[in-house]
Design a protein that fits this description.
The chain is an alpha/beta fold. It has one domain (16-225, 253-311): NAD(P)-binding Rossmann-like Domain (Rossmann fold, 3-Layer(aba) Sandwich), CATH 3.40.50.720. It is built from eleven helices and ten strands. The chain has helices at residues 25-36, 48-61, 80-93, 120-141, 174-197, 203-212, 232-235, 240-247, 255-258, 260-267, 294-307; strands at 16-20, 40-45, 69-74, 99-102, 146-151, 214-220, 223-224, 252-253, 277-280, 283-285. The strands form two sheets. Strands 3-2-1-4-5-6-9-10 form an eight-stranded mixed beta sheet, sandwiched between helices. A two-stranded parallel sheet has the order 7-8. Helix 2 (48-61) links the parallel strand 2 (40-45) and strand 3. It is globular and about 55 Å long. The protein starts with 15 loop residues before the first strand and ends in a 23-residue tail after the last helix. InterPro entries: NAD(P)-bd_dom_sf, SDR_fam. GO terms for molecular function: oxidoreductase activity. This is Retinol dehydrogenase 12. Keywords: Oxidoreductase.
């Protein structure tokens, strides 16, 4: 029920795509479809063995002509060191990056911290992808036209950004922390698209809109039956997800259905001229009022830049042909 399908006939021959968390769920479906459409697909995953199994399954299931390539890169979004290693490895091997899908994530997990000391959900779902995207952005810009797709959630409507306790040290609720991280995803998409477009009131930056050619999207995939819900029983009570599936059955999607909006934002011709918008079921939807707050988006950007240690990194004026300064000593 309520599951539209990406109907694009576009192909990705000669394109390079990166999909985080693509060894399972909607990420795996996304990687599989990109491969079928002829792209070189980089599966950026924390568990390399599971990624290898996913590659074996994809290549066994998808046969025929015009297929792409499948490449595995290790990426642990809970570790800035791992993110930097992965980004540098990709930049050393790939001259172009046409498509980045920030798909990986965790949901309503027990209280914990990333390797760099940030609340797990905010650290992985937002900060990890924020850092990864900005390290790759100069190469993405030089590969234009290009797209950056950020998988968020409808849960963002329940979220707010608590800058005074962004790591939820004082009080931790798995659901509130998750909603904050998903709101951060939408705000990141909004602010990144604004910065890539430039100031439309300035004639100089109007020209930059044409030169940038990088479009950014955020989306709600739906309530999807994936491993993302694996911690619900642990956080709440045994059988929580089973009961949830019973009550939500008419709306629960399988991974193939859940990947359709990601594919729509990634390849559909209709979205080619759109940027900074939020999508659900292959349609533009209005996000929450906080997600539309430009000042909140700017403040989160500035805070995130400091948290990931990129304060001295001029990402929008860095050449896409070289390894960025933050990665030179990695």
């Amino acid at each position: 029920m309520f599951s539209n399908k990406c109907k694009s006939k576009a192909r990705l021959d000669g394109k390079t795509a990166i999909v985080t968390g693509s060894n399972t769920g909607i990420g795996k479906v996304t990687a599989k479809e990109f491969y079928r459409l002829g792209a070189k697909v980089i599966l950026a995953c924390r568990d390399v063995k599971k990624a290898e199994q996913a590659v074996s399954e994809i290549t066994a299931e998808v046969q025929g002509d015009g297929l792409g390539q499948l490449i595995i890169e290790e990426l642990d979004l809970a570790s800035f060191a791992s993110i930097k290693r992965c980004a540098k490895s990709i930049l050393q091997k790939e001259t172009k990056i046409h498509l980045l899908v920030n798909n990986a994530g965790v949901m309503t997990c027990p209280k914990g911290k990333t390797q760099d000391g940030f609340e797990t959900q905010f650290g992985i779902n937002h900060l990890g992808h924020f850092l990864f995207t900005l390290l790759l952005l100069p190469r993405i810009r030089s590969s234009a036209p290009a797209r950056i797709v950020i998988v968020s959630s409808l849960a963002h409507v329940f979220g707010s950004i608590d800058f005074k306790d962004i790591n939820h040290d004082k009080s931790y609720s798995p659901a509130i922390a998750y909603s904050q991280s998903k709101l951060a995803n939408v705000l990141f998409s909004k602010e990144l698209s604004r910065k890539l477009e430039g100031d439309e009131t300035n004639e100089k930056f109007k020209y930059l809109i044409l030169r940038t050619g990088v479009h950014v999207y955020s989306l709600h995939p739906g309530i999807v039956r994936t491993e993302l819900t694996r911690t619900l029983d642990q956080v709440y009570f045994p059988g929580m997800w089973f009961l949830g599936r019973i009550f939500l059955y008419p709306w629960v999607k399988n991974p193939k259905q859940g990947a359709q909006t990601t594919l729509y934002c990634s390849i559909d011709e209709k979205t080619e001229a759109e940027t900074g918008l939020y999508y659900s079921d292959c349609k533009v939807k209005e996000p929450s009022s906080l997600a539309r707050d430009p000042e909140l988006a700017k403040k989160l950007w500035e805070t995130s830049i400091e948290m990931v240690g990129l304060k001295d990194y001029d990402v929008f004026n860095c050449s896409g042909d070289v390894i960025p300064d933050p990665l030179k000593d990695v």
